From TrEMBL:
One of its GO terms (biological process) is DNA-templated transcription initiation. This is RNA polymerase sigma-70 factor. Transmembrane segments: none annotated. It comes from the Bacteria. Pfam families: Sigma70_r2, Sigma70_r4_2. Belongs to the sigma-70 factor family. ECF subfamily. Residues 116-187 form the HTH luxR-type domain. The keyword Aminoacyl-tRNA synthetase does not apply. Keywords: Sigma factor, Transcription, Transcription regulation.
Length: 187
């Protein structure tokens, strides 16, 4: 340091610009390294040090000794780093909470939409002619064409025809909702 420690503290107390230049040149790099050990990010460490320098400039506080001033600097850096880390932890918890709730809400919306599509499907299926409806309901329960044919005493070709007619009717009746059925892998 180019000036005595006592003169430096006197200039800091009187807010002389030259003292802050000396403060920056003499302490900045050390304080950034000290802060980096705590916050693990250079940009954040630099911000912390700059905030402390600004606080010193704006504060009416006066320092009695160079040694006390140095202790204050390191304590102030330590406290700002802890504040930053606490704030970051709160932000992370809030973000995790938001993501969890967002996923829950998206899940609820998806389930609500799915229920509405199924409701429309079953209302539309009720409008099918009896035999066509029976074939299609068995299809929805996962039965194969051969099983449906055997259960209803129909030929496999007749089952296929009823299913085609049902799909054509549902496409017309349900419009865009029919596409969602395909997405939900119902058909």
């Amino acid at each position: 340091m180019d000036i005595s420690e006592d003169k430096f503290i006197q200039q800091i107390n009187t807010k002389e610009v030259g003292a802050f230049r000396v403060l920056f040149e003499h302490f900045y790099n050390y304080l950034v390294l000290y802060a980096m050990k705590r916050v693990r990010q250079r940009e954040v460490a630099e911000d912390v040090v700059q905030e402390v320098f600004v606080a010193i400039w704006e504060s009416p506080k006066e320092y009695n000794s160079f040694r006390g001033f140095k202790a204050f600097l390191y304590d102030a850096i330590q406290n700002r780093c802890l504040d930053y880390l606490k704030h970051k932890a709160v932000e992370n918890r809030y973000l995790a909470y938001q993501l969890a709730n967002h996923d829950d809400e998206r899940e609820r919306e998806y389930n609500l939409m799915r229920e509405e599509v199924y409701r429309e499907l079953y209302l539309s299926v009720r409008e099918l002619p009896d035999r066509c409806r029976e074939v299609f309901e068995l299809h929805l329960k996962g039965k194969k064409n051969e099983e449906i044919a055997e259960l209803l005493s129909l030929s496999v070709e007749t089952v296929k025809t009823h299913k085609k007619n049902a799909v054509r009717f549902l496409k017309e009746r349900m419009g865009n909702l029919f596409t969602l059925l395909v997405m939900f892998r119902v058909l």
